[in-house]
Amino acid sequence: MMKKKEKVLIITGFNSSLHAIYQSITKREQEDMIVLSSYNAELSQTYSCMIRSIIMLVLSEQIDEIYFIGEKSNNDLLLNEEELLARMREKGVNTNILSTLNYLQVGGGNVIKWLTGENNMETIIKKI
Length: 128
Fold this sequence. Notes:
The chain is an alpha/beta fold.
């Protein structure tokens, strides 16, 4: 079996304008980078889809480094709990279901807080 070329995994948010600086940060060619984008890339949830994706990429690709790249002050996509609830209502979501989900301990017992995630990039990075 032929050995795959070593690659880097970059975990970042949705700001595609950052892609231009990845090469200078990682010192790798673009074809040697795998970019995994996520809303508020929190890795504190042990069995999350993000963790699953990281594990599968590390096992299936020749990943030798992982970079977490984010912006300290980018609040473009951040929603607080009230804004999120308002948008859910606008879209026709029955917010009564949230009480049921909270009761079932979905998202740690507070679905809205789980969906909005941490709003401070420094706190997110410290958790990692």
